[in-house]
Amino acid sequence: MTTEIRIPKIGMSATEMMLSEWMFEDGEQVQVGDVIYTIETDKTTTEVEAQVAGVLRVLASEGEAYPVGTLVATIE
Questions:
Q1: Would you state the pLDDT for residue 43?
Q2: H-helix or E-strand spanning residue 38
Q3: Cα–Cα distance between 4 and 23 in angstroms, integer?
């Protein structure tokens, strides 16, 4: 089963986030709890962890801003 990884809503006012860094390459195996990417707002940097184990499929680029809810990766 494929799990979608989306830009999370953090805080009340943030409508988009900068995807600052992928911690794993496309096609790499991730485990539950691994930090898979970081996002930034003008106020904070947040690490996003894998909620399932599997193969990461990266769909979005580092250094780009994405609206909250945007699909940025899947874990297969």
A1: 84
A2: strand 35-40
A3: 17
